[in-house]
Structure prediction request, 1858 residues.
Amino acid sequence: MASKAKSRKYVYSFGGGKADGDGTDRNLLGGKGANLAEMAGHPKLKLPVPPGFTLSTEVCTHYYANKRKYPQELKKQVDGAIRKVEKILGRKFGDPKNPLLFSVRSGARTSMPGMMETVLNIGLTSETIPGLIEQSGGNEAFAYDAYRRLITMYSDVVMEKAGGIEPKEGQGIRHQLEHLLEKKKAKVGAKSDTDLSAEDLKDLCEQYKKKVKQVLKKPFPDNAEEQIWGGISAVFISWNGKRAIAYRDIEGIPEEWGTAVNVQAMVFGNMGQDSATGVAFSRDPGNGAKIFYGEFLVNAQGEDVVAGIRTPAPINKESTGEQNKHMESLEKWDPKVYKELDAIQKRLEKHFRDMQDIEFTIENRRLFMLQCRNGKRNGPAAVKMAVDMVKERLIKGDEAVMRVTADQLDELLHPILDPVAEKKASMLTKGLPAGPGGAAGKIVFTSEQAIAAHEKGEKVILVREETNPEDVEGMRAAEAILTARGGMTSHAALVARGWGKCCIVGAGEIDVDVAGGKLKVGGKTLKKGAEISLNGTKGYVYEGSLDMISASEDNPTLVEFLKICDKIKRLKVRTNGDTPEDAKKARGFGAEGIGLFRTEHMFYGEHSAEPLFKLRKVIVAKDDKERAKALKELYPHIKKDVKATMQAMEGYPVTIRLLDPPLHEFIPTSTKGKKELAKATGVSLAELEKRSELLHEVNPMMGHRGVRLGVTFRDITETQVRAILEATAELLKKNKKVFPEIMIPVVCHPNELKDQYEVVKEVHKAVCKKHKVKKIPHLTGTMIEIPRAALQAAEIAEVAEFFSFGTNDLTQMTYGFSRDDIGGFMGDYLEKGILPNDPFQILDQDAVGELVKAGIERGRSTKPKLKIGICGEHGGEPSSVKFCHAIGMDYVSCSPYRVPIARLAAAQAVVEEKAAQPKKKAKKKAKKK
Amino acid sequence: MASKAKSRKYVYSFGGGKADGDGTDRNLLGGKGANLAEMAGHPKLKLPVPPGFTLSTEVCTHYYANKRKYPQELKKQVDGAIRKVEKILGRKFGDPKNPLLFSVRSGARTSMPGMMETVLNIGLTSETIPGLIEQSGGNEAFAYDAYRRLITMYSDVVMEKAGGIEPKEGQGIRHQLEHLLEKKKAKVGAKSDTDLSAEDLKDLCEQYKKKVKQVLKKPFPDNAEEQIWGGISAVFISWNGKRAIAYRDIEGIPEEWGTAVNVQAMVFGNMGQDSATGVAFSRDPGNGAKIFYGEFLVNAQGEDVVAGIRTPAPINKESTGEQNKHMESLEKWDPKVYKELDAIQKRLEKHFRDMQDIEFTIENRRLFMLQCRNGKRNGPAAVKMAVDMVKERLIKGDEAVMRVTADQLDELLHPILDPVAEKKASMLTKGLPAGPGGAAGKIVFTSEQAIAAHEKGEKVILVREETNPEDVEGMRAAEAILTARGGMTSHAALVARGWGKCCIVGAGEIDVDVAGGKLKVGGKTLKKGAEISLNGTKGYVYEGSLDMISASEDNPTLVEFLKICDKIKRLKVRTNGDTPEDAKKARGFGAEGIGLFRTEHMFYGEHSAEPLFKLRKVIVAKDDKERAKALKELYPHIKKDVKATMQAMEGYPVTIRLLDPPLHEFIPTSTKGKKELAKATGVSLAELEKRSELLHEVNPMMGHRGVRLGVTFRDITETQVRAILEATAELLKKNKKVFPEIMIPVVCHPNELKDQYEVVKEVHKAVCKKHKVKKIPHLTGTMIEIPRAALQAAEIAEVAEFFSFGTNDLTQMTYGFSRDDIGGFMGDYLEKGILPNDPFQILDQDAVGELVKAGIERGRSTKPKLKIGICGEHGGEPSSVKFCHAIGMDYVSCSPYRVPIARLAAAQAVVEEKAAQPKKKAKKKAKKK
Prediction:
């Protein structure tokens, strides 16, 4: 080990047009180090980067693996690297005449902002201060200000934190030194730090050093060599600091990665009126426009731009706005430097093939590049840049789809609260973010109130304890829904997401008093009509009506971006939709068919009164004959509904699920409703109540529903299938291209399917005869949503012509979680980390995923080309969509507003798969050797 | 094929002290044919069997594989076999002087009683009748009666049925011939067939032949050769008759097996006063006593004994009873023949090593053996014979345990309705047989009524729409429970089975009117106090109070038999029990520990009022502090309960499941109960109702229960664990050998278990400290009852110290069946054959079994010696117990009354496993060759 280690390279120099490493060395040099090397050394860049060197992540690993000792050869390599920097700059580290100063910064593979330490101005000692004053043209104040900063940072970071000293709250050395600064400023009447004179600062430095010795029992080291090693160690130690460990845990960054340390020659933007510092982006990160966008401050250091103490000036006309239109731009302040910077940003973007976030410093009219990295951006910007860069041939489609996250795409699909207004608003309470986007309106407490207000043109928020199917009309009329109970897959959440409507559920602090027409929350009482605003993406509820920013769903850039996704993806994306409106909306979002049409939804929606009443007659029928009569009345409604939706989805398949919920869900709960029904069916109210009571179930989720209804009431299946096939026959006659897929839900045994297939076959024969055709094209398949169905998929596939995984119910039964009832414990489960996330939102790839995989493998062991999709809520959740791709599904289906997200995830899945494959091959090769 | 087939033997002769086959040839010769060959040909038997021959099952197979054609060589082989019989008997088939007659009977591998056809007296023609008269010493009436029977059977079986003629209801040829017989009898004034004269019968035969020709358009064949081939074909054709196919489907008999055909020389027990026929058993099939038991009739044919037209006489003193004590026994009628028969039955039993059911005929004082087979027997007889035969060294223990079925054993464990009384009683209605045994008593409709009547010493039957936990006291007080709703695993069924109590559920025709104190069923109204009787083994309800036959659980023979089982079985058998009484009862039945002690049961039972009230205070506690106080009050109840039960089960492990049901199950539903609770907890009724409402769940089965309660209310777990460990510590101090196993229910993720383990560890530490001991022996494990837990068993086993499969819940979730709600469709599902049986009764080895197997394999992949058991209802169901054995569980646990059944099944599992193994080896060998 030791002999091999002797020849190992630990220190990588950069600067003077050369670099030991390059941009591909992220693992070894960290992100910052690798990019510095790339900027400094790449033949096409060779940018003016202050020279320096990087101690690799291997030093960090070695340090922790060897009881916090450095490799033997490190000292020599660092000394050699310092000599190189001295040579490039003609200054010397620790030299009294012409001293060289360094910054010491961390730099892990992945950016861990603010989690590790930085020390600037290293090398300033009582000996070298005069030399710095000399270099700055006699600017004493500048030199002592730099010294003051060094003492502050060094005593805090190196002596206290890295020394393992844990002071009491508010007693840290940095705090105590700042207290001295404030006292001094008060004493001399200085408003800002820059008002202090050289003398003031010099005195302050003396005070600082005394305080450091007094508090930390050690003098501030007056030696450049000691300072630099103290700084380096402090950075390595900070890798295992509390903050860094916590951050790594959250982000899943392995401890073994370690951090690199970047040591770089100091340049000063604060050396006077010919110096400046700035931050810029190669495109506008707010909207993606292809302009050079940035800000700068004359006579300032980088942290001043970020801190926002002074308003920065725009770098050019394109970056000029209301707040800084009176200020001189960099373009005007120094056209030459600006031109140089502009050329550099263009080169950098072309080089890194992505929008760059760059930091620069101008020391005495000379430009230095301090950092460059891929810039952060919001949703609209991410989409626009991805599309533009493909057009510019800067990147390929594969790369473009990886440049946009699902969350970024989602930003484009919903109106949101104005972030500026939101920051200032007063938050009332929080709930679960069940439907993304924002909404503002007046509080109403009942469905009727919502409809009435909506008809008057008022915007309302429907606030309920929890919602049920009878609230659906009111939910449709409201801008948003807010409930005090329920989880992410409660009724309110499901319905709202289906409509892309803003919704917050489970806001448990709210006490709803429907009768009193008011709600109480956090000591406040809000009456009906009071205005509130909801941020459904975060689950925040605000008092008052906040401004909104509208959605951009018809954004042509979005359309273009999704076309890029479509070219790449293999999975088809369908929608869950129950109406022609849903179908049209989803087509607009790019849906390639309907994956889940719920027949029962005609009994919930806006025009449900008549069909629902007829269904109720079916349900309470006292015998087969009465039921047959009622079904005959219901039949035209089903046919009409199915026909209109199929027509709206022409050219694509439509999967129609037969009646799924237990019948008692449709029985009226109000006495008025019961009386009406009793009258219409000619039975007494008592008799009606008895019949309803008989339908009551203890656990309706696992009761008499789905195919079980079809088996016991064959005529209910028969009526639905006839409606579907008649509608199809009629549309085919009009040359409409329609493809119905009849889906039988809640199957757990192949015999159930065989039983229902007989009905489908019989009806098909009869309808063909009636329409004088040989065949009406259709598929008959099943949902796989019961664990047993997944396990018995081989047997079920002998009958089924397609599978559609219902992962909502499959998750319920695999976990034994009723999604209506998880409210009681899910909060605790997530908080205590018992579950990594709510399995109804993100598919559990371990167990539910195992069942889905088994279902696919077994199903295809019987029918190799079996068509397989998913129609649970997971079909629109990115990680779940990728899983569906990986395990070989043919399509996913999700609510219309999730269709674009699913298209993106499906494309990313392909790219990620490609990226993983060569690695696999490489591994295989390695093994062979 | 053809050349090979030429040399194949299809016909196997027997008789004259020789036989081509033997008793091992069941597959080839069928059961009857093989035993005839054995009796006729085995050197140690050589019994007087009428000679004959068997056409093998291969003929049947060939017949159906070759468009209903026989093998070429069959005719020749049959002719040869006939010649052999002719030689032995000195008669000739078709010979006018001394004709030989044959019977033709079916005989499959397994007995298919009444499913296939028989033709007797084949060979009687107008030519051979005089010869038969001659043989019978001039008995013309006998000969024409035989002829009449032949025409009837032949025209029905061969000409009509095998000819594929399907007459209208009541128009069959047999029916028409019998009509002629009745007419003739009326005309001559004959009361019975035997009153007809030879002349009458002769005339009748002529009428028969005319009718046959008229109806079937073919003459009855007057040719012996034609008759015998017609008979043989009819039997083969009946193998694929409707009745036979239906029977095969039910019993799972493969069509490929085919049937054999037995052709045997006729002997006549009806040839006069020196002839007779009888049936006998080598031991008493009613109680197993080792006596020769049987009946016979002089001048009769076998069917007369079975038909019960004449009362048969006993064969000996031991077989004499009230009904036949005046009749002459065979022993007296012909001591010589009796002695011969007695010697034969002894030889047969020794030879076949089981109780034999034999048929014999005496023709002119000469004894013939027509059939022998292992005799059917009831439960008590089966157990006694098994034990006796082991003592007699006739069989080994392995064989003994295979001689008793679970149903037979069950007969010994419950009092039953007197079968004689039951036959005469009038059935009111039917339900599902939820708790075996019988009961009689007065109807009551409420728990209170049941308790009051019970206290007065009255026997009552509790009749409810359905039961709930509040009915438990009344259920305990009643003799039996009858419900109008609910399935085999409804509350009533589970509780009743746990107590071994008679119970019928889901008797849907009953209309219960609790308020009116009456029930209506089938047009009758029964008031409170009316007497009814229940057969809980079959689900029959009778009017009136029927006589009972008491159970024989302390039967020493049963104890001996179960000891034989215990020596063989590998599985341990534990009991599900919640009280010291349960524990004692189960120890009596041989339980080796408790596999499921439900802490919540202390809140249901007889003395539950106080603990339940305290639990309710825990539940409605408004905050942690209030709950802590309430838990402190509840604690001594839990400890007392656990301690008493562990003490009663001393020497064996006791698995204690922590609180499992959702809390709202315990909230009072009556206003009175609510008011009391409100008063005790010092809150308003409205507030209490609000708190209860908050606990309401849509699907409580999958709600906030089991470990989910433990995670959210850590102190509920803590209190229970402390009670268990304190109780253990106190018992250990008294040198009691107790082994608690703490079981955490409803786990779906290893993190839940980790969370609860921390609590157990902490409490353990504290209790050890208090009692000044280092360790309190205990195991902490989990139920595997959620599909996810089975799939994640490897991860869960990293924490769990044992697994107990809760297959009730696992079945619920694997099927998506709420066992409380299957009533709506399970009836249809079983009737339509969609499910082979109720998966809550018989473990579904396909899917639920796959999960259980996976759970075991994965669990043991982490901990190879992981202790694994089952505590669902399936733990007492024989086929499920065998499955548990096969997949390597350590124990099964079931209700006390099922413990003996489980012990038997566990022993049978070992024997069946051994029996399967050599076969496997043989197969392997065969493959190697």
User: Anything to note?
Assistant: The longest strand of chain B covers residues 366-374. The radius of gyration of chain B is 34 Å. Chain B touches chain A through 47 residues (CB under 8 Å).
